[in-house]
Design brief:
14 strands; alpha/beta; globular; 40% helix; five-stranded antiparallel beta sheet
Length: 361
C-alpha cells in the first residue's frame, strides 16, 4: 500500500515532498555533476603525475623523489605508511637491494647516496637501499616491515645507536618522535585503505599549503618554527636533507663524543639484538653514526655477544649541522666513504662479494 501523502500549496498545486521543484532538481543535478567532474578531473591529474604513489608530490623531471615530510602548522610524514603497507614503489625497490641499512634519522642524514653509488654500487655491481626512518629510533618497526614484505637482502647494516636518535635501536617499542611530540606509530594500527586515505590527505593538504602560502604569509606574516620539508627517493630510500639549516654549510662544528665510555649494554638489549638478527635471516653487520650522545662501547659489546661483525669508521669527528646530533652534507660524504672502507674489511661483505649467494625466491 502506497503511504505517500500528496502535498499541495494554497492554489491547489502539487508540491514535491522533497521541497524541490523540477528547476531545483535540475540545479542540484548540475551541481552534483559539476562536483563529480571536478573531482574526477583532479583524480586524473593526480594520477598523471607519475609519482611514487597516487597524489605524490614529485620533483619536476624526477618523480621518483616524493614529498616525505612537511606541514606548515602540523608536521607529518609519509614513509611510515608507504613502507609498512607496501604502497608505492619503495618496497618493490627495497626487495631488489643487495645491501639494506636500517636506523633512525641519524642514518637518514649520514648516508650520502652519491658516494654510496660511486664507492659501493658501481665497483661491485650491488644495489644499496637506505631504509632508515626519521623519528623512529627502535629497529622494531623496520623489522616488522622486513617480515611483512619478505625483504631478503644479502647483507643488513644496522646502526646500533642507543639514544642519539631518541632511543635504543634494539628496543621493541613502536613509537615515533618529532621533538617533544612522541606517539605510537599510526601505520601499525591502520588498514591499507586507511593508510591510503592518510597518504592522499597529507598530499592534498601539502598541495593546498603550497598554493596558498604566499597569500597566507601576506596576510598573517611568515610562520616561525616549522620543520623543513624533505623528499625521499623511492629507488634508493635516500633522503634529501639539504633544506635543513646549515646542512650544506662549510665549516660546521664537528661531533664531540661526550658520553662516558663506560656505557655498557644490558642483557635485555643483547637478547633483543639476537632476536632481531635471527629474524632478519641474512648476514648482519653493526655500525655506528657518531653523535654526541652515542656509545661505541655498547656497539662492540652487542656485536661480541651475538657473534656479528662491526663496520666502524676509525674517526667520529664528522661535521654536524645541529651541534653534534646529526651529520651535515660534508660529514655525510666523509662518513659514507669511511663506512664503505670499514665494510670492505668485514668477512660478511667479502663473502657476499666473492660468492654467488644471491637470495633465492
Amino acid at each position: 500500500m502506497d503511504r505517500r501523502v500528496e502535498r499541495t500549496d494554497r492554489a491547489g498545486h502539487q508540491v514535491d515532498p522533497d521541497g524541490l521543484g523540477p528547476a531545483g532538481r535540475r540545479y542540484l543535478g548540475c551541481l552534483l555533476g559539476l562536483t563529480a567532474a571536478m573531482l574526477g578531473g583532479l583524480g586524473v591529474w593526480l594520477a598523471a603525475q607519475g609519482g611514487d604513489h597516487f597524489s605524490a608530490i614529485g620533483r619536476p623531471g624526477d618523480p621518483a623523489w616524493y614529498r616525505n615530510f612537511g606541514g606548515d602548522s602540523v608536521t607529518e610524514i609519509q614513509d611510515q605508511d608507504l613502507f609498512y603497507h607496501g604502497i608505492g614503489r619503495s618496497i618493490d625497490n627495497a626487495r631488489q637491494a643487495d645491501v639494506i641499512i636500517l636506523g633512525s634519522s641519524l642514518v637518514s642524514f649520514a648516508i650520502d647516496q652519491a658516494v654510496m653509488h660511486e664507492r659501493l654500487e658501481k665497483p661491485y655491481g650491488l644495489k644499496f637501499y637506505n631504509m632508515a626512518f626519521v623519528g623512529v629510533a627502535s629497529g622494531e618497526f623496520a623489522r616488522q616491515i622486513a617480515l611483512r614484505h619478505h625483504l631478503r637482502p644479502r647483507l643488513w647494516i644496522l646502526n646500533a645507536d642507543d639514544g642519539g636518535g631518541g632511543g635504543n635501536f634494539f628496543h621493541r617499542n613502536l613509537t615515533r618522535a618529532f621533538g617533544a611530540d612522541v606517539r605510537p606509530i599510526p601505520s601499525t594500527k591502520l588498514s591499507r585503505y586507511g593508510a591510503t586515505y592518510e597518504i592522499i590527505r597529507r598530499n592534498l593538504r601539502w598541495r593546498f599549503e603550497d598554493a596558498t602560502r604566499h597569500w597566507r604569509e601576506a596576510l598573517a606574516g611568515p610562520r616561525s618554527g616549522p620543520l623543513p620539508r624533505f623528499d625521499r627517493d623511492d629507488r634508493t630510500g635516500a633522503a634529501d636533507m639539504s633544506t635543513f639549516p646549515r646542512f650544506l654549510s662549510q665549516g660546521n662544528p664537528r661531533v664531540k663524543m661526550t658520553r662516558d665510555p663506560a656505557c655498557h649494554t644490558t642483557p635485555d638489549v643483547i637478547a633483543n639484538a639476537r632476536d632481531m638478527v635471527r629474524s632478519l635471516g641474512a648476514p648482519v653487520v653493526l655500525t655506528f653514526v657518531p653523535n654526541f650522545h652515542g656509545c661505541l662501547t655498547q656497539v662492540r659489546e652487542i656485536a661480541a655477544a651475538i657473534g656479528v661483525e662491526t663496520a666502524l669508521p676509525s674517526r667520529t669527528d664528522y661535521s654536524s649541522w645541529d651541534g653534534g646530533g646529526h651529520l651535515d652534507g660534508q660529514g655525510a660524504a666523509d662518513f659514507t666513504r669511511d663506512l664503505i672502507d670499514a665494510l670492505e674489511q668485514t668477512r660478511a661483505f667479502q663473502g657476499m662479494r666473492d660468492n654467488d649467494d644471491r637470495r633465492k625466491p
